[in-house]
Amino acid sequence: MTDSSPGEQDLLPANPIRDTVSVLFSGGTDSTLAAALMLREAKKVELLTFDPGYVFFLENTKVHARALAEKFGEDRVEQKFLDLRRILKDILWEDVKGDFGRYGFGLTSLVCLGCRLSMHVAAIIHNLERGIPYLADGSIRVQSATPEQMESTLDSQRARYMEEYGLVHVSPMYEEPRSDLVLEDMDIAAFPDMKKQFILYDSQVTCTFGVSADVYARIFYQPWLMGDRRERDAAGYREQKYPRMDDLIRLYFEQKGDSLEDRIQNLRDTYSRDQLRMTPASSSSSPTLEASP
Question: Domain total for the chain?
Fold first, then answer.
């Protein structure tokens, strides 16, 4: 656990700067801590939990959602379940044969990046509709063997989402290896030593592809064996999928007869107003939701 782990009082601000922050929420300890951290600078968090159609025990995600609501208030925490299957068809499953030809067995790990990018499409649409310029996730460095949690991937996404959509994307506890212990200190963890759980979890889903992808990445998809192949594959995969993501987001708003440009401008305006409200004191104590340069 890091020395800078927040105390309970830090998470209950009298005058939060942000209105709402959305969080990619699996129910695990990492995304739960990310949500708790966002509560120190936002009035409310919306926990976005996705159903891709190939996970088990989706109801488990409610365990820590309830724990957060009980800790910080029912009016400050809301969980939303989003069906991801249609988006996955156009992102992850768009050209599996072609992807295998490009990336070979590396696709075993890249499948998690494709799933995460699909989640981002749904989350960006959600945030644009709700006027929420902030999106957090529970990515951590100790799991950066998998492409979706590599620092280069996160940096690419932050820069692109801000430039294209006015969306601030953050991973507020990237350097924290033991989120379970932090949550125990905060009396939020549903069970002790939750980081020791594997395959079958008490508070999150079990993914059909996640276990094999993680094992492959940790054993075979490493720089000492692959050189810079992992970085090149992840960059190529992202750049391949970004245009399709843009198409899906734009098509969604076109079909609704809604102005995507107006939605994007609303996010930029909201972020600018929030920045203006920040005093030197508040900016030093709430650094996690600043936009990347």
Answer: 1
